[in-house]
Automatic annotation (TrEMBL):
InterPro entries: NTF2-like_dom_sf (IPR032710), SEC_C_motif (IPR004027), YchJ-like_M (IPR048469). Residues 34-130 form the YchJ-like middle NTF2-like domain. The lineage of its organism: Bacteria, Bacillati, Actinomycetota, Actinomycetes, Propionibacteriales. This is YchJ family protein. It comes from Nocardioides eburneus. Pfam families: SEC-C (PF02810), YchJ_M-like (PF17775). It comes from the Bacteria.
Length: 133
């Protein structure tokens, strides 16, 4: 699935081609260097969807707060009606990112505004949790 998007603009909003932006992270060819890069790549994984996207989200979730894979499968099934349409990063620090993710549903558009927390674990950034407003 990720290969189909390689020359398209990355869903994370950097303006770079997917192949030069989040695809190497999704494929495990390299790790996110910052919390912002990890957050953008996680958004892109949700945007491209499928099992590969779910697996990336699972791998980058801190084990202390990560839901069971079955719960992620249920969330993915529910979110199949969502089409992620854009991402705006409002602010960030070393280990947090505030953003708005926009989406369309059959019932109309919506958005998710969150301040996410991240932690380096064994040299890799992981998503810990977030406050949705």
């Amino acid at each position: 699935m990720f290969g189909d998007l390689a020359e398209s603009s990355c869903p994370c909003g950097t303006g770079l081609p997917y192949a030069a932006c989040c695809q190497p992270l999704h494929r495990g060819a390299r790790q996110a260097e910052t919390a912002v890069e990890l957050m953008r790549s996680r958004y892109a994984a949700y945007a491209v969807g499928g099992t590969a996207g779910r697996d990336y989200v699972f791998r980058t979730w801190h084990p202390r707060t990560r839901p069971a894979l079955d719960d992620l499968d249920a969330t993915e099934a529910t979110s199949r009606t969502l089409v992620w349409t854009g991402l705006t990063v409002h602010d960030h620090g070393d280990d947090w990112v505030e953003f708005t993710a926009r989406y369309d549903t059959p019932d109309g558009p919506g958005e998710l505004h969150e301040r996410s927390r991240f932690q380096r674990r064994a040299g890799r950034w992981t998503y810990v949790d977030g406050e949705v407003s």
